[in-house]
Amino acid sequence: MNTLAGTGTMIRFVARRERVRVPVYLLVLVGLIASTAAQSEELYSTQAERDEYAATVAGNPGLIAMVGPAYRVTTVGGDTAWQWGAFGAVTAALMSMFIVGRHTRAEEQSGRSELVRASVLGRFAPTAATMIVLVAVNVLVAATVALAMIGLDQPAAGSIALGASLGGAGLLFAAVAVLAMQVNQSTGGAYGLVGAVLGASYMLRAAGDVGDGTLSWLSPIGWVQSMRPFADERWWPLVLLLAVAVVLVAAAFALLSRRDDGAGLVASRPGRAKASGVLAHPLGLALRLSRGALIGWAIGLFLGGVSIGLTGQDVESILGDSDEVDELFARAGGSLVDNYLAVSLSSMALIGTGFAIQAVLRMRSEETSGRLEPLLAAALARPRWAAGHLAMAAGGTVLILAASGFGAGIADAISSDDAGRLPLLLGSSVALAPAVWVLIGIAIALFGLVPRAASASWGFLAACFLLLYLGPLLSLPDWVMNLSPYTHVPLLPAADLTIAPLIVLTAIAAALTAAGVLGLRRRDIAST
Amino acid sequence: MTNAISVSGLVKTFGSVRALDGLDLNVAEGEVHGFLGPNGAGKSTTIRVLLGLLRADSGRARLLGGDPWTDAVALHRRVAYVPGDVSLWPNLTGGEAIDLLGRLRGGLDTDRRAELLERFDLDPTKKSRTYSKGNRQKVALIAGLAADVELLLLDEPTSGLDPLMEELFREYIAEDRRAGRTVLLSSHILAEVEALCDRVTIIRAGRTVETGSLAELRHLTRTSIHVETIEPADDLATLEGIHGLQVTDRRASFDVDTTHLDEAVRRLSRFGIRSLTSQPPTLEELFLRHYGDLIEQEEAA
Fold it and tell me: pLDDT at position A326, please?
């Protein structure tokens, strides 16, 4: 039997299913990298300012640990490559992992692969097709990043090296992912494995970069950064990345040829035969369903907070005292450090809103998957069911905001040698909760009143993002800026705490929630 | 006799699709009622209206004397529901799912739960994502059967179960009937309906086309007759209600509308009957004939 029969058809099939996601992802990644380069160009008008910035960066081990070794931050290209080397690699790795999972293990888990493989299709064809598409996607990553940097008048060699390093990271983690998909029976479990490898790679290079660099050589992300784009590029780490990827893919195919459809190396562990007391009420169920997401988001926001806190006290020398910087933080009083922290914490809150919306939209997926039906058929009132998920979303929001504020507070307290900074930043972050609650309110209102449009909640979040970042640059009129709830929360710790906007935002959130729950009570439950 | 379920003139539309078009359904207390109809006839929609998951556009629906929409929660303490396509939480075990559903209804009988787990041979420690279709079905079935309720709403409850489990399911339903529970059983397995149900309702395109006991329904359909006569039976074709007549010399076979059976047998006796076999219609035939006829009629119109 030809194990690759039908690969061509599968390639077209996989590509078709990714035809929206991949271009959007590419656009966002390249857009962010290009805007970093453009900002770096604009922020420092003289080489002296640039040198001062580079010296500050090089002297901040916290920053080196978060971002990576600073090779030639004195140039626009070098600065961009420094800021995006590790983060870009992680982004490319995650995108590649999700594509691999979606087209291999997730298909097996849902039983769809059975249907496909029962036709004239070789055993390796779905996986091989997925990997071929991934090679194409990561080559595209490399090419678009390189072209964007060249388009911004950066040296060609460095641009290509930056692009290639990100594409290489994507491919390597695609290989890690395809191997993990063979090992673990569930897609989520395999993602966890890849995430652990990715996290370990990140921590190893952090330790290595701060130390003598030996540990960085144990980390694929370390290899990515050792290509040194815009700083006398080295090309052989790319060969190393690709060689390891090939070995991992070969191992994955060896496992694939031995295992059954749907099986893994690690069998699923047995769980409880009886439900614990937590599962007796809707909040317990919501908690159980969103537990993993909550923990993940809390850790992510904590780390984000730490990185904010680490940079905080150095922000003056990093950003310099230019007019652009003043303009960037022109909205509140207080010191530059506090303004930077305030804006960064509200950016973290915006990111954390992703969790809140995800938690609310879980209600919709529970409904459309048919899992809500037996619950409602079992003497559970709709508002009570919704209350469980809403409590999870609103309370979880407070928790992850606290994680972000706690991370920032600890790091800032250590670098400023002032323990009082910890409760201050913790409180500042938690005070952002009412803005997030408004977005929760929008999501539940959509879910209750126009359930088909529930996922439009993400659009509202995207609009808030754009307003926060582009608003000041485009000098949008006040009434437009005022549409975003994040405009109304006091920018603590820079501004003074004002209670009124927090109460108003909470009231708006409550009204939207009430409208949503009322809508839910009145409407039909979707059938599967 | 009071009705556990009484539905009349129920209408439910989804956009331009009329899923229920004046449906009537009456289920007496303590009976096992079969609910039949081809795919897309509106069986699941009816059950979902009865569960208060969908709001009917017009018509009247009463469940255990209450309004299924406004009294949903109170009624559901007295009702168990088993869907035909069970979707479970992938990271919960089967045992946890059963407990969750039971507790929401106000607790379940742990002895009965243990007995059902053992008899249906389900491992409750496995994560739901690892269950096969049949095992997911068992989870819903056990959760439903372990509940101490007055009314069971079963929507193709045995889909994906093996014949042994199906047999076991029949035992439990028979036991429920003895205990005085009311059951509405929507099913495509006609042998199951024939074995369990006191009365059936057949629906098509959102409307009730037939309802009654199996005996009554049989009466509405045809019996097939094979007969050997002493004299050639030559004028059978003139009889009313005769279908598919085939006569070869002294042998004849035909289907006769059950209402005209008596007449046909009288006529046959004139020719002297040497042997006669008659087959009452099976539910399958009843079902097929009903839809076959309706489809033909519609095509003709």
Answer: 63
